[in-house]
């Protein structure tokens, strides 16, 4: 019985942790690795014992998930590369952009540098970084 109690405790703790993780993922359309593994575990637990899923099917599903995950990473890197290339093309050019502190006014200046961070590409104008998506016109 001690082994059974330990297994029950582990199962309950895992369900509690998974429920907490699910709360933080609510509303997200992206399927991460944890969600995939949870689905895989549910599939294994609820399969028909008379016709269990073959190992090849599990391996195929895992491979497909890995392939999709890598494609998403590649796409994210490609988007970052495109943004920094577009921002770099503006170096030395005069731009007019919406003032992030006051949407009713604009900022004009020559782009001296292009930067990228987790939010996207930024342009350095007068020693201050501005998001590239605020650009209205380029001279």
Walkthrough of the structure:
This protein has helices at residues 2-25, 33-45, 55-88, and strands at residues 94-99, 102-117, 120-125, 128-131, 135-138. With 139 residues, it is an alpha+beta fold. The protein has a 5-stranded antiparallel beta sheet. The protein is elongated.
Concise account of the structure shown:
The protein has 139 residues and is α+β, with helices and mostly antiparallel strands.
List keywords for this structure.
about 140 residues, 3 helices, elongated, 5-stranded antiparallel beta sheet, alpha+beta
| Largest sheet report | 5 strands, antiparallel
Q: Main sheet: which strands, in order across?
A: 4-3-2-1-5
N→C terminal distance: 78 Å
The count of β-strands is 5
Which secondary-structure class do the elements indicate?
alpha+beta
Helix fraction, binned, reads: 40-55%
Order of helices and strands: HHHEEEEE
What share of the residues does DSSP label as strand, in percent?
Answer: 25-35%
